[in-house]
Amino acid sequence: MLVRGVRGLVRASNSRNSSFLGGLFGGSGNQKNDMSTVQEATFDYHPYKLHRLEDGPATSTSLTRDDALKIYHEMVTIRRMETAAANLYKEKAIRGFCHLCSGQEAIYSGMKAALREQDSVITSYRAHGFTYVMGVPVLGVLAELAGKKSGCVRGKGGSMHMYAKNFYGGNGIVGAQVPLGAGIAFAHKYKGDGGVNFALYGDGASNQGQVAEAFNLAKLWDLPVVFICENNHYGMGTSQERHAASTDFYKRGDYIPGIHVDGMDILAVREATRFALDYCPKNGPLVYEISTYRYHGHSMSDPGTSYRTREEVQEMRQTRDPITGFRDRIVGAGLAELSELKAIEAQVRKDVDADVKKAKADGELAVDELYYDIYENNLEGKIRGLNPWDRWEHKKTQTAVNL
Ligand SMILES: Cc1ncc(C[n+]2csc(CCOP(=O)(O)OP(=O)(O)O)c2C)c(N)n1
Ligand SMILES: [Mg+2]
Fold it and tell me: Which CATH number fits domain 45-57+67-332: 3.60.21.10, 3.40.50.970, 1.20.1330.10, 3.40.640.10?
């Protein structure tokens, strides 16, 4: 991305910044250097690749200082949260599957920055980043991973089953979220709520039959859905060249228009999302390929180095990292001082460390509570336990989301 120019050379006022920084920096609110920043800047970036479209998303966008700081805080939090999860896993405080999303943060923050109240998201098992940007606090994610009761599903769901308002999870069956996303889009259209569904899947998942079936019905019925291939170039340990007959994932909808988006550039993702919000309710589905990279192995049991070189991972970190890239751009454009971004990083580290402590100290649900909240409206009576003759009481103690 190129910084084209800087607009709105209004100096940041002390009162506005102290309220924002006051929250972020625990009330001190006296960060230095904010007098030298600007309120808004304009950025240009390389054009998108288009399939069956005359015009694509805007290739120039403006960003306010407030949004820049918010986005930076969000992406740094996801990165730190995933590092914390990796450490908890190594300590055996987290068991089972754990798929980390470090490197892919710009997709979650970029989409969230554009989404409206009525839009919805569904994604794969690599869901921690999205869960956080869609409203679950870091503790809700980390405690869930550790199977503790402060988890967003009270420790019952674990890594792949996290939900929030307008966020339909975390799905463990590869590709399953694609037809589910088409179904949610059907509901948007049926109810006339004006919402668009964003259904994300991996490059490996794109080869599934159910993906093609969902494309067909979505186009047949012109559903407001964006099928997004989150292309990190590997399906487990298999590179896209070895698993896909066509690696132009944005063209894989054939009769559905598609766009290739740089997923290491949060502003490109934001503009692409805005484009879809305008396009889909009028014209039906789109297929996006958002190109990105995962730094960790496929899951915690994969060191991630047998099918790719350490140098490849290093080079991506050094030259394409979505967070440091964004940091350089906003500092270059005068939207933020390096010192305040460093302070954000330090604060995030402190906050996430505190949440790690809380998650570790937190308790597990009692056994009888495992059988609560299975149904919103229980028509079954008592719930079967491990043995058919074990019967457990069902109670509704939580408020369901997305009903
Ligand atoms: C139906 C089904 N088949 C196989 C698996 C095992 N599996 C889990 S993840 C994965 C690879 C998916 O890769 P990709 O879609 O590129 O997503 P990424 O992990 O890169 O985000 C496979 C084969 C599964 N969970 N479900
Ligand atoms: Mg992949």
Answer: 3.40.50.970
Cβ–ligand 1 contact at 207 (below 6 Å): no
Q: Does the global pTM surpass 0.90? A: yes
What pLDDT was estimated at residue 20?
27
Please state, in angstroms and rounded to a whole number, the distance separating the CA atoms of residues 113 and 63: 11
How far are the Cα atoms of 30, 126, 206, 251 from residue 160, in angstroms, in the given order?
40, 7, 19, 28
Domain ranges within the chain, ordered by starting residue: 45-57+67-332, 374-403
- Encoding tokens for residue 36? 């030298």
Strand partners, 260: 49, 289
Dihedral angle over CA of 57, 59, 63, 68, nearest 10 = 90
For ligand 1, atom 4, which residue shows the shortest CA distance?
A: 174
| Residue 256: partners with Cβ closer than 8 Å, 6 or more residues away | 52, 215, 218, 219, 227, 284, 285, 286, 287
> Quick one: which atom of ligand 1 is closest to the CA of 299?
19
Residues 6+ apart with CB under 8 A from 343: 25, 31
Kindly give the distance from the C-alpha atom of residue 145 to the centroid of ligand 1, in angstroms, as a whole number.
Answer: 19
Q: Does the CA dihedral 282-286-292-296 come out positive or negative?
A: positive
Reference 220, options 249, 182, 178, 248; nearest CA is: 182
How far does CA 312 lie from the centroid of its chain?
23
Nearest CA to ligand 1 atom 18: 202
d(CA 145, CA 160): 9
* Relative orientation angle of helices 322-332 and 65-90, to the nearest 10 degrees: 150
Give the number of C-alpha atoms closer than 13 A to the C-alpha of residue 184, restricted to the C-beta side.
Answer: 27
| DSSP letters spanning 312-369 | HHHHHHHHH-HHHHHHHHHHHTTSS-HHHHHHHHHHHHHHHHHHHHHHHHPPPPPGGG
pLDDT in tens, 43-101: 998 789 999 999 999 999 999 999 999 999 999 999 999 999 999 999 999 999 999 99
Is it the case that residue 290 has pLDDT exceeding 70? yes
Instruction: Measure the CA–CA gap between 227 and 121, rounded to whole angstroms.
Output: 10
What number does the ligand 1 atom closest to the CA of 126 have?
Answer: 21
At 227, phi and psi to the nearest 5?
-85, 115
What are φ and ψ of residue 288, in 5° steps? -110, 145
Above 60 in pLDDT, residue 360?
yes
Size of the chain, expressed as the number of residues it contains: 403
